């Protein structure tokens, strides 16, 4: 494992650079300067971050074009009420965007607080995701959405963990570091198909399913490599997968 840690650390240094931003969805929250906009953009962008990266970027451009210069102001002014039925990204349509906006509108207008409080005041970030899911439903007459993952159903919650990574990690390179009430040590790896595959090939993960148990197992192991910032290895696992490097030669 010492050799694997050194290998991953090299890849973190190689991938976690400003050049990464222009080809990654993290560029969308980084386009904004107002904290409220960064927060909203992080959750909305992460919600459609699955599938082909180029398609994700095109879909995010389309989504934010509908929201004007300030996503937060768009939500508070209920601009989403004008959304119709257009497709935004794969199975995510304008009515799904309206759902997310209504949920956040209800939260912001009733509390006047950042969503950081939802997660910082929860016992674990998994509990925070559960509460976030509940709050989105509160703003939508109790209706739940398939686009807001459920930790209690053993979901890996990849997209929400990705949003949390963007908002919490604070090394000043790629992630926004907007939130300061949550330590990066508390984050969980955003586990998608590619991160799961590379983790298994490296012997970091033995569980076959990409579910909550797999996230907890992989994150615990990565915490042994870097207790204060285990999720930095998301860059390495992603980069290795993208590069096509032959791991059998290591």
Could you explain the architecture of this structure?
This protein has 250 residues and is mostly helical. It has one domain (2-249). The chain has twelve helices and two strands; from the N terminus they run αααααββααααααα. It has helices at residues 2-15, 27-30, 35-47, 53-65, 71-76, 94-111, 116-120, 125-138, 158-168, 193-201, 212-225, 233-243; strands at residues 87-89, 92-93. The chain has a two-stranded antiparallel sheet with strand order 1-2. A hairpin with a 2-residue loop joins strand 1 and strand 2 (92-93). Helix 3 runs antiparallel to helix 9 (158-168) and helix 6 crosses helix 8. It is globular, with a radius of gyration of 18 Å. The two termini are 13 Å apart.
How are the SSEs placed, and which strands pair?
Layout: H1 2-15, H2 27-30, H3 35-47, H4 53-65, H5 71-76, E1 87-89, E2 92-93, H6 94-111, H7 116-120, H8 125-138, H9 158-168, H10 193-201, H11 212-225, H12 233-243
Antiparallel strand pairs: 1-2
Helix pairs in contact: 1-12, 3-9, 6-8, 10-12
């Amino acid at each position: 494992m010492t050799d694997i840690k050194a290998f991953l650390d090299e890849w973190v240094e190689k991938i976690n650079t400003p050049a990464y931003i222009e080809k990654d969805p993290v560029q969308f929250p980084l386009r904004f300067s107002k904290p409220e906009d960064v927060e909203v953009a992080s959750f909305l962008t992460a919600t459609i971050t699955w599938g082909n990266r180029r398609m994700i970027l095109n879909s995010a451009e389309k989504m934010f074009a509908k929201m004007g210069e300030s996503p937060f102001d768009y939500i508070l002014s209920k601009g989403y009420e004008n959304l119709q039925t257009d497709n935004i990204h794969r199975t995510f349509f304008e009515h799904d965007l309206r759902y997310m906006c209504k949920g956040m509108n209800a939260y912001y207008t009733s509390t006047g607080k950042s969503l950081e409080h939802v997660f910082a005041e929860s016992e674990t970030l998994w509990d925070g995701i559960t509460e976030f899911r509940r709050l989105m439903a509160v703003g939508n007459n109790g209706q739940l959405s398939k686009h807001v993952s459920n930790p209690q159903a053993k979901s890996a919650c990849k997209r929400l963990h990705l949003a949390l990574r963007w908002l919490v990690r604070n090394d000043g390179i790629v992630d926004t570091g907007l939130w300061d009430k949550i330590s990066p040590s508390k984050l969980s790896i955003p586990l998608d198909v590619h991160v799961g595959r590379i983790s298994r090939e490296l012997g970091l993960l033995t569980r076959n399913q990409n579910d909550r148990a797999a996230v907890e197992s992989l994150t615990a192991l990565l915490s042994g490599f870097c207790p204060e910032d285990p999720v930095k290895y998301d860059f390495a696992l992603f980069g290795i997968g993208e590069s096509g490097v032959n791991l059998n030669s290591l």
